[in-house]
Fold this sequence. Notes:
By secondary structure, the chain is α+β, with helices and mostly antiparallel strands. It has a single domain, classed as Alpha-Beta Plaits. Helix content is 47%, strand content 26%. A four-stranded antiparallel β-sheet has the order 2-3-1-4, sandwiched between helices. Strand 2 and strand 3 form a beta hairpin. The protein starts with a helix and ends with a helix. The relative contact order is 0.22.
Amino acid sequence: MKKLFLASIITVLISNAAFATETIKANVNGMVCAFCAQGIEKKMRALSQTKDVYVNLKQRVVAVEVKEGQTISDETVKEIISNAGYSVTSITKSDQAVATIKAQLEAKQEAK
């Protein structure tokens, strides 16, 4: 019985890990116009591992959601943004979907 219970717990943990969302969130300096944001978004969407992208110009945030089972390194994100002419001040990883991050950032903007 204990083995069955342990096997069930392991199965649930593995299933949850397999469906976990990974989003890379970068704070970016130098974005000053919609064209800047559009250029970064286009380059991030071109990656085969990208599921979704959101760029918030006012708060200078780029969020890249990674497809299930895929990864994108922080260095790749920094390189793409740097090659586009902007600098990355910080990168964090989140388990939130891009849609959630977008809603939070836009709600924060409206509150100001």
